[in-house]
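Forum > Structural Biology > Help requests

Title: Can anyone predict the 3D structure of Ribosome-recycling factor, mitochondrial?

Hi all, first post here. I have the sequence for Ribosome-recycling factor, mitochondrial but no way to get a structure on my laptop. I'd be grateful if someone could post the structure tokens.
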Amino acid sequence: MAMSHLNLLRPVLCRFLPSVVRTPLVTSSRVPSLPHSSCPVLLPNYVRHYATKKSKAKAKGQTAKVNINAALVEDIISLEEVKEDMAAVLTTLKEDFSRNLSIRTSPGALDHITVTTKDGKFPLNQLGQISMKSPQLLVVNMTGFPEAMTAVTRALQDSSMGLNPEVEGTIIRVPVPKVTREHRENLVKLAKQFSNKAKDSLRRVRTGAVTRVKKSKESVSEDTIHLVEKQIQQMADNYAADIDKQLATKTKELLG
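Reply #1:
Sure, ran it for you. Structure tokens for Ribosome-recycling factor, mitochondrial below:
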């Protein structure tokens, strides 16, 4: 009688058994086992997903950004002043690029040259009148300060522009080098030197700021110190990226 009832329940059991996970602990000797051929049991398909190398590298490269309210840490350090100092480094780099790495000839190309005299240091355009006779020739009239002729000539020679001035009385003739491929490549090397110099200045600003923050460790929690340092590093990284962008743009401009 029990076997006939079990035969009636077989379709129902076959329908629901695949979704049930059974263990030997619930097996009873009083219940007859079902034939395997009449009721196949389907095992669940478990799939384990592994992180790929690409996803791991992406996760590793991502760092949580910090955005501290400057007013809350002004007793420790002025983040606005740090930002201004870093911005000044980038501004100086742009000025260096504009003054020293221009392919086009103009009278203003010599304005940035500093002349050292016995009376101090002066911009070249304050000692002599600069004019352009042709795209390949600049002229410096030293009638106003003839005693500075030697100093001006030396300053032109020592500049990073590869100039070979020629003295004629109180007139200094400055032939402008032709824009050759070699000249362009030399300007690119000079641009890299300026960008490296800017990054050195940026590191000094960051180091100085971090040093000031660490001096407050006795009155501020370590977590706060860590967050401020991370904010400063994040600011430095952003300006370093800007320096790289300026270099890439200038390199493309110089090489044509």
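The first helix runs from residue 2 to 16. The radius of gyration is 38 Å.
Shout if anything looks off.
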